[in-house]
């Protein structure tokens, strides 16, 4: 951009401050800029560099205190250096290409089943800012892609991008702060907004959310409702509410963003407080399913653990299994076999996805060490006909007793194990299931305000047992807790509907409320809607739980949600 007619650099150019009766505040504003232009980085964002020329350009084109400059007719289109090729992006691209036919087939099936709703869906403009892949966040994943590091996040992001594209929405993808074009200046809010956000929705992660706050400053508050946070482990309401979390010991390194908790989108359906985004696993056709059944090797097992550190201290456990099974591993190494992997284990090194699939199709068992706790691999193993064995923890691992969960905005406990003996893939994790789910979110989760979605006809009011969460109370009745319905049951009449006698009724900030105590006949309503929570339990209270039904194979959606 040319700041002056005779120079290319405004810092060296001399621009005279105009005296125009139509712009009486121009000279004083230039004086203010001279003294304060470094007070907020938003000024530099607009090209202010300390020169009078840059002040006048800003005050005439971004703000309105100075007259337009007649010589401002020379502009150049900014050029961006091509983004460096990263292993993480290459991994995602390969996955998209490998599953392209599967996605296309799923789109055709969904088109047939949804008919009018599918064809008349709203097309929206979406920014996808993958914060953990940016250089500014360290891009810690790219170096690990070739070394067996965590790939679950990249699997999910690749599938999210594909789903949004297949659904026909307009996408802008950002993996750098330089590409984060939000239409608002960075900084602390000193500069004016340039208008509405150029996107209807923004999908990002916690890293990206931090970067957006630094970039947008106070402007972020205005546009929070547009944000969807891809959150692997989930964020419960008690951790999300900043003041409440600080006062009651729920403050963590993440959380505390004061979003509607359905704006957090998880890898697995941990709590209905969040929206289950998910991912997909490769589907098998009938021929492949028959082939797997014929070619299974009864005495073959594959271990879930690509990093050598996961095998440390497991030799005794593996030696027992080795009496009955031929054990295979996929642990990364460059030159020497990792010493943590016992000699009797056949280690294949880090395998490409297609070769890993072939290995799983031969194996009978997929064996976990307890960590990783979860990820796409066990689901892929089950889909390929493996039995997945995962140790239980006594006591269960949680943020209260284990370093891995400490600092994560959730109180859930890891203790479950899975058994399957035939190739099995839940509908939720197929391409069609994910497309159906994401389509419903985009069409209906607009501002999380009335009209209600899911439809109110799906509401079933229950009271939990003492010390029972609404997640468990609803599940015990074959239902799902639905946080969107809390605002309909957070009323005095809900207690009388359950024949509960209330001697006292108070509203307070408590993530257990609405709830009641049989012993004291006290009833409590929720004071802050941000604290409506399906998670959480208290031995003193029975909770009021808003439950709903769900579609077969799709717990995120009620039967009438499409």
UniProtKB/TrEMBL annotation:
<dbReference type="Pfam" id="PF15024">
    <property type="entry name" value="Glyco_transf_18"/>
</dbReference>
<keyword id="KW-1133">Transmembrane helix</keyword>
<dbReference type="GO" id="GO:0000139">
    <property type="term" value="C:Golgi membrane"/>
</dbReference>
<feature type="domain" description="Glycosyltransferase family 18 catalytic">
    <location>
        <begin position="419"/>
        <end position="547"/>
    </location>
</feature>
<dbReference type="GO" id="GO:0006487">
    <property type="term" value="P:protein N-linked glycosylation"/>
</dbReference>
<dbReference type="GO" id="GO:0030144">
    <property type="term" value="F:alpha-1,6-mannosylglycoprotein 6-beta-N-acetylglucosaminyltransferase activity"/>
</dbReference>
<keyword id="KW-0812">Transmembrane</keyword>
<dbReference type="InterPro" id="IPR026116">
    <property type="entry name" value="GT18_cat"/>
</dbReference>
<comment type="similarity">
    <text>Belongs to the glycosyltransferase 18 family.</text>
</comment>
<keyword id="KW-0333">Golgi apparatus</keyword>
<keyword id="KW-0735">Signal-anchor</keyword>
<feature type="domain" description="Glycosyltransferase family 18 catalytic">
    <location>
        <begin position="42"/>
        <end position="414"/>
    </location>
</feature>
<protein>
    <recommendedName>
        <fullName>alpha-1,6-mannosyl-glycoprotein 6-beta-N-acetylglucosaminyltransferase</fullName>
        <ecNumber>2.4.1.155</ecNumber>
    </recommendedName>
</protein>
<comment type="pathway">
    <text>Protein modification; protein glycosylation.</text>
</comment>
<keyword id="KW-0808">Transferase</keyword>
<dbReference type="InterPro" id="IPR052105">
    <property type="entry name" value="MGAT5_Glycosyltransferase"/>
</dbReference>
<keyword id="KW-0328">Glycosyltransferase</keyword>
<keyword id="KW-0472">Membrane</keyword>
<keyword id="KW-0325">Glycoprotein</keyword>
